[in-house]
Design a protein that fits this description.
Blueprint lengths: L1 H10 L1 H5 L11 H16 L7 H15 L2 H17 L8 H18 L8 H18 L3 H22 L1 H6 L4 H21 L33 H8 L11 E8 L12 H9 L2 E9 L2 E8 L2 H8 L4 E9 H23 L7 H9 L4 H6 L8 H5 L2 E9 L2 H8 L5 E4 L8 H9 L3 E7 L6 H11 L3 E3 L5 H10 L6 H13 L2 E7 L4 E3 L2 E3 L4 E5 L2 E6 L2 H12 L6 E6 L5 H14 L4 E6 L7 E5 L1
Parallel strand pairs: 5-6, 5-7, 7-8, 14-15
Antiparallel strand pairs: 1-3, 1-4, 2-3, 9-12, 9-16, 10-11, 12-13, 14-16
Amino acid sequence: MVLSGADNLHQNEARINALNVFPVPDGDTGSNMNLTMTSGKRELQKYPNPAVGKVAEALSKGLLMGARGNSGVILSQLFRGFSKSIAAQEQIDAQQFAAALQNGVDLAYKAVVKPVEGTILTVAKDTARHAVTFAKRNNDIVQLLQEIHTRAQESLARTPDLLPVLKQVGVVDSGGQGLVCIYEGFLSSIAQELGGSNDQPIGSEAAMPFRVPAAGKPPVAAPPRPTAFQHASAQSKIETEHIEFLYDMEFFINRKQTGRTGLRFDEALFKGMLSRDGDSILVIVDDDIIKVHVHTRKPGDVLNYALPYGELTEIHILNMREQHRDLLHEEESAAVTSGIQSGSVEVLPETAVVEEAALGLAVSEVLTGTPADALSAEQAHEWAPFGLIAVAMGEGIRSIFLDNNVDVVLTGGQTMNPSTEDFVKAIESLSAEHIYLLPNNSNIILAAGQAAELSGRNVTVIGTKNIPQGLAAVLAFREEEAAEVNTHAMNEAVLHVRSGQVTNAVRNTTIDGISIHEGDYIGIMEKTIVTAAPSLQETCRELLGRMLEDGGELVTVLTGEQAKASDTAELTAWAREMFPDAEFEVHEGGQPLYPYLIAVE
């Protein structure tokens, strides 16, 4: 059932994206929901045919870690609440299914600071409320799902009445439409499985909608293991001396045997200590046993870090340089033997080398997108008081953030929202007492907040809704100040910057009395479209004029991929003449889709 819902959502991704209210080329609700649901589907497929509660738990975990954008986070919360409601159940009936839907709605509303009606939340709420009422008098699961689908469609049709901007543009809510597609897939699957009406409980042998079917496909044979020579060929691309953290360590800490020296185990602090001189860090806490894995230059220090927390058992330390030398020797021997036997030496295809080499990326590169040699010694080895993580699209903007105290820049924005898991991994990659997240997009704030909660670290989300706000927040940060002072200063800076952006319309529409034609340039101030015209210069000038109506001392212009130097020169010359009291700065941002991003302070 869940797989069918995910598949139906995937098939309608483009249709849902097309419902984006603003006519900009980055409508991505369908993409975010699809990526979120795909992550849940992937986790679900690891658990074939167990109890329904356990499978729902797996689905919830996958959705939670893969959640992207507001719609994805809300979707993950709906299923998280659903999962919690049936966690202990082997099977569920229609009433329990309906109650679980309602629990999901309750949790989703709590996750959103300011819930807005006329969105996916409304569709979920109306549907769950009706499902609970219906299930009290009818325990037929197929009929319940039919009612759920019908009520969801009815609620979706009413979203324009609750959210004026939807009615103005003439569309229904995109997130609500995505949820309807999921329910539609649920109904299709369960109706086919049960062949019509049925009051069998979900999870029984006669009705297992959460089951992961084989779909009639034969098992796929695993690819053949690479030969020793092939494996070593990939390793031969690495110089033995370049293996920086050469000792591979694994051991357990037995917390039951702490003695008088036992300390409360602080996982974040312990990881920070390991990361001072190590990578590939893995710490798993399971009641009184802690499993530790790390690559380090100083195994003695690692053991000393661990000793205060309990007795160390099953200690394994391997020298990876020695292993590498042995592997190269085996390769040389295999090559000679192969050449003698066949008269030729096998050459590993270049693509295979790339694929195997990708598995050997340094942890810093996997987590942050930054090669290890690009990190400073301070970033890699010190437990700093603060760490900053920002989201940005465009090499120029990325460089500006990195040059202004930001440690990790996640690639993302309107067209590609980082998931909750992306944020969690970035947080885990930093050795810092207090970490700030700058989402720089209103559609990413929920995922950032969810990651902050999941990380268990001291993390503050600054609610930056665009790049200009993010840059203002970063410039207000002072490493020598206390966390409370920085939080206040960064939030204040966000309030005192006016943001503008210019992009192209992807369809004809009318918003707030402004007639927009496909291909027009549109000027957006904060969240409001204030101008549209076929001319880029006309749109930019009107937008700048509106942004500077109440004055402004500094105007920063970030040029995008589509911006031409001649257009930028013409625009800034006009602006300096029209607004002589303002200072203008132009930086290459490199962002896609938006020729210009503008900040006024």
